Amino acid sequence: MSMDICLWLNGVKLSASGSMSAQVRLRLLPSARCLFDEPVQVTVAGLRSKQVVTLRARSTDERGVAFNSSASYRADGRGEIDLNRDASLSGSYVGVEPMGLLRSLKADALHKYFYKNRALEPFMVNFSVHEEEGGMLAEATNERRLIGDGVRRVPVKEGNIQGVLFTPPGEGPFPAVLDLCTFMSEKRASLLANKGFIVLALPVFTDKPKLERMNLDDFEEAVQFLQNQSKVSRKGVGVISRSKGGDIALSLAAFVPGVEAVVWINGCSANVGIPLYYKHHQILSPLMFDFTKVIPSESGANIIKQAVENPLAEENKGSVVPIERAGAHFLFVASEDDLNWDSKDYLDDMVARLKRHQKKNFESVIYPAAGHLLEPPYGPHCPSALHGMLRFPVMWGGEPQAHAAAELHLWKKIQDFLRTHLSCNPAQTKSKL
To answer: Which residues, listed in sequence order, are joined to residue 41 by a DSSP beta bridge?
Structure first.
């Protein structure tokens, strides 16, 4: 009676005698270490001609939740697979998607968002190749860093500001950007700093948000803090925002001097949920929710798109942000499959309003099949998750492949827009690994 005994060393299958029974190699090109927003080319070599294998990816987020994805591929006649070229036959996605294993990372439990918000901790992804029977043939780990070499990260706790400042390497001067994240996240800010921007990441809400009123003065303080940084160019400050941060960004442009450029991503055209005050006076009333219009889904997450009151209704006009008085340049970005609220309608209203006032200080981008959570590229797509304010699961929307393509396109668009309107010199030092 014979027995086939195998050992494993560094992910490569060995025979009982220790000699390699398969010279399978999994490579991540150009390097296994890269920035979060950079692609890698996944290749496999040393397979049998036309062999079918499963490629898997796995990662764990900052809350300890495990995410996995897998896809089956058939090697070519030379026993090689290249995800830039070859189509997945089945699994988490089908077709040619070079970064599909990252986009499709998913937790076993429903409604899980992949938390990767601290800049100093890289996004670690393990890739592996498996036989049809399940045995692992090779593996490699991709270290996807949020903060590049030379970028300084400094926590800021000054006055009403509680955020994190990221400064690129070099003497500058650099354009300054205020990153308004709904809840604290360093991801987008650190990645922009890698591109040559000084960025202050500032949450709209802290862990214990005060819902009685919101003070625009606190965000004005953050704008002034950025303007006072020694390496900031003399030009005004840019603001990037999404969701609730969108109406705060619009309000900064309308009421606060020094705001030159605003990136508004799937926000609202009106002040949502909380009265907005400035200089001790209420300047905008809150646009409220009608929870009788929440639609439950089979997955247990709710669609809240229709639950936000209409900002164009006569009784809600006091909540609409008067962007026509702003001198800033606007980049409006809306996803048509945003299930959080009707970002596309809000965009259309703002564009029409600016045109009525003979304004040309805006451009807009619409993504037909993308969802609410547009983020920097190459992260896991999140179709539903716990809503940070409402405290129940909601649908965010987005067809996964189209959403991923939108994130890739938008990321370059944002950088170009901010450079154009904040007088950034594209040749300035960028952070590299």
So the answer is: 29
Contact (CB, 8 A) for 169 and 198 = no
Does residue 52 contact residue 89 with C-beta atoms inside 8 Å? yes
> What are the Cα distances from residue 323, in Å, to 2, 175, 255, 332?
79, 23, 9, 12
Q: What is the pLDDT of residues 258-292, one digit of tens each?
A: 999 999 999 999 999 999 999 999 999 999 999 99
Sequence-ordered list of residues with C-beta below 8 angstroms from that of 110, at least 6 positions apart, any chain: 299, 300, 301, 384, 393
pLDDT range class, residue 391, cuts 50, 70, 90 = confident
Pick from 366, 360, 308, 356: nearest CA to 332: 366
- What's the rounded Cα separation, in Å, for the pair 419 and 398? 28
Structure tokens at 421: 């309107």
CB 239 within 8 A of CB 249: yes
Q: Are 119 and 187 in contact (CB under 8 A)?
A: yes
| Catalytic sites, residue numbers | 243, 338, 372
DSSP H helical ranges for 9-144: 100-103
Model confidence, pTM: 0.91
